Amino acid sequence: AYLTKRQKQLEPACSGIVLYLGCNRTWPQLQHHNFFFSADSDAEFRDLYEHKIPHDDPTCYLAAPSITDPSVAPPNTTALYVLVHCPYLTDAFNWEQQGADYQQRILAKLERCGLVGLRESIQVSHALTPRDIERLYWANRGAIYGVVTQRGLRSAFKTGNRSPLIKGLYFAGGSVNPGPGVPMVLMSGQIAAECVLEDFGTATHLSPKEIASASH
């Protein structure tokens, strides 16, 4: 019964759709990092977290690495990375049948936000949907941020790195302290290692600077 209760607390966090685009033109207004926000963030959150469907007017993160590293793309072209948050996989949205249309919706949104001629400029494209993320990375229902953080006053804290159920079991990854993202996951591995050393009486008590150095 306890495990069933715990499993209910491990709801996947959101997923995402990623577009990799090679375009035969540039847009002078772009920076390396760009955000194009939804007109109604409350409606977007309700769609993602309550209705479990992608939002019609999504917030888009767009990276243009060729702006700071010209070697990423040939002259007068642009390499783009687009990330849009989506709900984790459920029956509410079929990515095999509806995914292509949603990609077009994202591209249309970016064109409305100033990337004029984006769709006709695309020479190379690749996409990862939540279904692809689940298949390629064994991510639970395509979630890209582990599990949903606890709500309420503890919403800023992830699960600890020691198992509360099994002595000698330790956790590392985006679902546990300190959180998702490559730097955070590397830190979680260092923290888990320190937990092992502490429990077996050989802790080194590495400083944050030493942990960062060790992660390289």
User: Structural class per helix/strand content?
Assistant: alpha+beta
Number of strands: 5
Supply the number of helical segments.
Answer: 7
Helix percent reads: 25-40%
The percentage of residues in β strands lies in: 15-25%
The largest β sheet comes out as: 5 strands, antiparallel
Task: Please state the overall shape, judged from the principal axes of the Cα atoms.
Answer: globular
Walk across the major sheet and give the strand order.
2-3-4-1-5
Q: Please mark out the parts with pLDDT under 50 across 5 or more consecutive residues, or reply none.
A: none
Order of helices and strands: HEEHEEHHEHHH
Distance between the termini: 42 Å
Q: Which quaternary structure do these chains form?
A: single chain
The number of domains is 2
List the helices and strands and how they pair.
Layout: H1 2-8, E1 15-23, E2 33-36, H2 41-51, E3 60-63, E4 78-86, H3 95-112, H4 118-121, E5 122-128, H5 130-137, H6 182-199, H7 208-215
Antiparallel strand pairs: 1-4, 1-5, 2-3, 3-4
